[in-house]
Amino acid sequence: MINIAILGFGKVGSGVAEVISRGYNLICKEIQDSIRIKYILDLRDFPGSPYQDLIVHDINTILEDPEVKIVCETMGGTKPAFEYSMACLRAGKSVVTSNKEVVANFGNLLCDAARDNGVRYLYEASVGGGIPVIRTIKNALAANEIYEINGILNGTTNYILTQMDRNGKSFDEALAQAQELGYAERDPRADINGDDACRKICILAALAFGMLISPSTVSCVGIRDITQTDVSIAKKFGAAVKLVGSTKRLADGTVDIRVSPCLVPATNPISKVDDVYNAILVRAASLGDVMFYGQGAGSLPTGSAVLSDIMDVAKHLKTVQPTQETWECGDPSLVCDEETTPCQYYAAVDLAPCKLEPYFDSMEVLYTEDGLTAFIAHGVSRKSFEFALSASGAKVFSKLRAL
Amino acid sequence: MINIAILGFGKVGSGVAEVISRGYNLICKEIQDSIRIKYILDLRDFPGSPYQDLIVHDINTILEDPEVKIVCETMGGTKPAFEYSMACLRAGKSVVTSNKEVVANFGNLLCDAARDNGVRYLYEASVGGGIPVIRTIKNALAANEIYEINGILNGTTNYILTQMDRNGKSFDEALAQAQELGYAERDPRADINGDDACRKICILAALAFGMLISPSTVSCVGIRDITQTDVSIAKKFGAAVKLVGSTKRLADGTVDIRVSPCLVPATNPISKVDDVYNAILVRAASLGDVMFYGQGAGSLPTGSAVLSDIMDVAKHLKTVQPTQETWECGDPSLVCDEETTPCQYYAAVDLAPCKLEPYFDSMEVLYTEDGLTAFIAHGVSRKSFEFALSASGAKVFSKLRAL
After folding, report:
1. Which of A93, A100, A169, A200 is catalytic?
2. Do the Cβ atoms of A343 and A380 come closer than 8 Å?
3. A265: exposed, middle or buried (Cβ count in 10 Å: 0-12, 13-18, 19+)
4. Contact at 8 Å (CB) between A365 and A353?
5. Which of A164, A205, A371, B307 is the 20 to 30 Å CA partner of B301?
6. What are phi and psi of B300, to 5 degrees?
7. Which residues, in sequence order, are CB contacts of A1 under 8 Å at separation 6+?
8. Which residues does chain B have within 8 Å of residue A133's beta carbon, measured at their own beta carbons?
């Protein structure tokens, strides 16, 4: 019998309980043992819930019970989630989490604590909801040097952009609709401003490059300024505007990491990822491009990802837990300057291609019609791109980073 | 030091060697040991190759060397690949393979032999080339009941269909081009007829439902009869014609498993998977739809998948190997009758929707123009669909299974 505790019985925590209940036989067969939720820590009491007898209000009940080997931290926020996770690891319990804020800010400390105490800290559910991307990068791609990761990491903003594209809505209309349907929070800032996507790309970069970069040092632009004009011009040539988190390791050892709305050309499979779906595109040595697609949020998909971590720990309880990986703490000086690092940029302007060519070294024209040229400039920094655009005298209808 | 042997030094076998050489440091770090290719079994000699000293011609050299713990079977064909794999497992060596023909026909016997001998039989590279789909279904989705799998499982046919769609080529022109570029074999039948996709969907069904159905009992239609008319009508409404392997468990315990060209509507992410790329869409309880996308073939991607299995075995050499899963042998009577089992079918015909409605219970019109109606009939068997089409008196321009 494997006893677990859940910290925080909100959307994800209750999803974990439901996924365990639904898949109980399959889970027991797979881990070759039975599993039981022994405690649920929450401030609330949940009278009438089938789980009401499991509710506790004091973390010490869990910390002091040697039967509890696995703790699911599904609280959200860093306080007291970080402190509780640390205490559990130090008490010899493995911790699995869906809390991207904690992982992105303190993952290195928690991985170290897990290793020092011979237990594990797993975080599959912190990126991509139900998409098994973390485990896949860790295991299946372990032999492949990862060059680059680009992802649609936030379902709320992708829903809004899809509505703007498909139904011609304005940003405000699309946001209101997302809120009505429960896809966006009443206070949607963490999604809209890109903070949520930023935490996730930091976690992916830590996995890929072994160092955790603080989200606070990452250039992050949200979708608030995306207009119907941006979206409808892109649509003319089959492209899409998406909020993309990107990271790659540069030759000089620095890391290019950023979150911003992007022009995604039709040939990139990310351009077709719509609604609340997420997708993560990994470019690796030998393997080439691999993409993972699925529901990036929701109680059951995310609960399912948490459960995959629980099962991973459970399967190893009777043998030896695999060694916890560690992340260096990425110094802010390792993050390249977003403004001056070469990248690709897109613009739609009123000049003909021949009038633009003198200003851009490597220019790819995506679309032209009378009075409109849409193009991507390759290998140019944002600063140089802005400068060249301005020097050309073009009237700019739309201007974005490009994938 | 972990010693491995490679059986068959063709495209995949040499890919394994190259991926090990390229990623050597990363691999050693991950498995916390060094790794060495001790033998390569092939009929040929490869003079001048850096691997020439490792070449052996007698399987007994490998079987009798207790230092060899892991054998990569990358031979292709079932003879002598099956017999050699069995002998290696019985000699206490784990076997990893890219050979879908062996796995699809004898996977149950090989899994049993692995379990009986306390070793493992892994086959990540047998489906989807470099896409880590097998490991993901086994681990990450282990707690989720899998309802349904649909996949583009063959890169050659997908390349041909993409060329027909994008450049208006005929089937024969597109095939000739695929052969020129090395994407299709000189004898392309195993690809074109759907045999390759059929083996792969059998392996996925075995993973999902725990029973191995013989490819010879599966309804399998290739793409030889797909015309430019099929492709260009679908294109009018953003859909695509794809060769799809599908399997799902029906309520009565039988398995619906089939390979055939399908009309894939624009809303299905599989419709955008082009060129030689593969994609596998898994529908699971709790998790919803998850899709994995990447290069389905090629020396390095496939070699990389083989290596992920090698590393999985290597990591566990010092502890306990996870228990080998077993597959029942799926009795042919468990495969539902393709002709009479309800499914979705698509047709493009010359009648207006109102003239068709009396003949179809659940009809979804995808597109109409003067003299053309494209529609999907849901929940209808192929037999009933054909009958209704014929009864309606419609002239049929295109007729396919639909996703």
Report:
1. A200
2. yes
3. buried
4. yes
5. A205
6. -75, -45
7. A33, A34, A35, A36
8. none
Contact A286 B323 (CB under 8 A): no
Residues of B in contact with A305 (CB under 8 A): 140
Average pLDDT taken over every residue of chain A: 94
Q: Which two structure tokens, joined as six digits, stand for B101?
A: 């023909």
Pick among B207, B286, B300, B313 to test the A interface (most A CBs inside 10 A): B286
Strand partners, A364: A376
Question: pLDDT: is B108 or A253 the higher one?
Answer: B108
Q: How far is A40 from chain B (nearest CA, A)?
A: 21
Taking CB atoms and an 8 Å cut-off, how many pairs form between chains A and B? 163
B145 Cβ under 8 Å from any chain A Cβ: yes
How far is it, in rounded angstroms, from Cα A154 to Cα A129? 10
Of A143, A291, A315, the CB nearest to B311: A143
Bridge partner residues of A243 (DSSP): A261
Name residues whose C-beta falls within 8 Å of residue A322's C-beta, 6 or more positions apart in sequence.
A120, A316, B315
| Contact (CB, 8 A) for A341 and A127 | no
The owner of tokens 């991926």 is B19
Taking the Cβ of residue A165 and every Cβ of chain B, the question of whether any pair is shorter than 8 Å is answered with no
Element (H, E) at B70: strand B68-73
Query: Which tokens in the block code for residue A61?
Result: 């009940």
Length of chain B: 403
- One-letter amino acid identity for B349? V
Q: Which residues contact A400 (CB under 8 A, 6 or more apart)?
A: A230, A241, A260, A261, A262, A263, A345, A346, A347
Taking the alpha carbons of B391, B394, B399, B403 in that order, is the dihedral positive or negative? negative
Q: What angle do CA B336, B341, B343 make, to 5 degrees?
A: 125
Nearest-CB residue to B288 (from A26, A272, A295): A295
Q: Is A118 on the interface with B (CB under 8 A)?
A: no
The pLDDT of residue A297 is 84
CB B283 within 8 A of CB A287: no
Token pair of A211 as six digits:
């160092």
Tell me the β-bridge partners of A283.
A148, A289
Helix (H) or strand (E) holding A6: strand A2-7
The CA distance from B224 to B170, in Å, is 11
Along chain B (403 residues), what's the average pLDDT of each consecutive run of 10 residues?
97 95 90 95 95 97 98 95 98 97 97 96 94 86 86 96 96 95 89 97 95 95 97 96 96 94 93 94 91 91 94 87 86 90 96 94 94 96 96 97 96
* pLDDT at site B298: 87
- Encode burial over A321-334: b for 16+ CB neighbours within 10 A, e otherwise: beebbebeebeeeb
Terminal CA-CA length for chain A: 49
SS3 state at B175: helix
Name the residue among B204, B297, B289, B188 with its Cα closest to residue B245.
B204
pLDDT value for A320: 75
| B117 and A282 Cβ atoms separated by less than 8 Å | no
